[in-house]
Every structure is written in structure tokens, then in C-alpha cells.
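Appendix B, record 7
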Amino acid sequence: MTDAGIPPAHPRLLPDAVHEAVGPGTALLRLETTRSRQGVLDGAWWPRSRNVGQEIPPLVTVLTEYLGPITRVGLDASAWNGIPARLIVDGRVVHLDSFPVGDDTVLITRGDNDHFALMVVPPNTTPEAARTAMARAVRADNVTQAAEILLAELPRPTEASGDPA
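C-alpha cells (predicted):
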């Protein structure tokens, strides 16, 4: 334990906490823990915003540590602010593609043709709802698409605003 009473973080562990509890540039990410990859999703990601330049580099950095070099990221242009053709992340070129995958999914390519699908939790999601949705997405036996998980787990707009249904 440190003097502040907080145990030191292991550098390979990914934070599973609220946005305010982690430093800027930290990717809030959960990955499926089995190598079978039989589930519909390989992981879940909770970005702080929809700003590609701020959110994609930390995601690619942490995924590269666990998966190896990331070559492409596929995003839905309707959900993200200004998708460039490529970014330089940690000295490597990462190509960005605009696909109609929906705002609830990001596609990651490792190597030439190894794809990973991550559920994207909306940035303004409450911590409890985000953790619940992310935990469901990374279950090895998950057969539910990202949009369905988010619809089931996230509060409806009327619930979040406190208006009666």
C-alpha cells in the first residue's frame, strides 16, 4: 500500500472505474477473458467523448499491449466527430475506416485480417450502467448484439431525466 492508502496499480491491469477516477487518456476497457472468442463481442469500451483524436489513441495503445499491433479501427461516421483517414499512435500508422457499424460498435483489426468487435458504451452513461453493460458484453457465452445489451442495461431517457414514464 502507498502512503495514501491506495494499493499501487499493476501496469497491465485496465481500469474498471468511473471516468473521473482515471487519468485523461486512460482507456476504460474490458476484454473477453477466454481465448475462444465464441461470443458476439470481444470486449467493451467506455470512451469519455466522441472525439476520435482524443479517444482512439489510448484505446489503440492499450489494445496493442494485449493483442499486438493494431492496423485498423472501424467507426461509424454518424457517431464520431471527424474521422481522419489515419492516426499515428505510438509511432505506428493506424488506419481509420468509416463503416455503418452503428454507434454501439467499434471494429479493431490486428494484422491483416484478425477482427475484434468492441461494444461502445455511450460517454454519458452512468458508472453503474456502464459496468453492468460491459460485464455482460464480455461474457464468453454472450450471443447478444451490442445495441441489445445497451438497450437492456442503460436507463431510458425519461428515467435518466427523472420524468415520469
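Remarks on this record: The chain has a mean pLDDT of 76. Residues 52-67 form the longest helix (16 residues).
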